[in-house]
Amino acid sequence: MTAALQTLMPAGPGPAAGPEKPARLETLRGIAQEFEGVFLAQVLSRINQGLGDGEEAEQGFFHDMFNDEVAKLISRSGGVGVADAVLKEMLKVQEVVA
Which of 44, 48, 73, 96 could form a disulfide with 67 if both were Cys (CB 3.0 to 4.6 A apart)? Predict the structure, then answer.
């Protein structure tokens, strides 16, 4: 994710201007939502581990896939606020670097 963030940051001094800025904001928002999805998948995985129903390895694999998809859906439908916080911090970093 840092490589993706570094490619979005302007090379020269000052904030970027023009139509490129909204596209950059949407890209950062997408990255933040993706991060939130990964975070939520980890949370859901831990919840399932706590339930400990003695599942076989194949079922565990499908639980992981299910958790990933549920996490993506939660993130896309507004999430739990992690994406907003991550986006806010990424924008702060850009202001400092710019």
Answer: 44
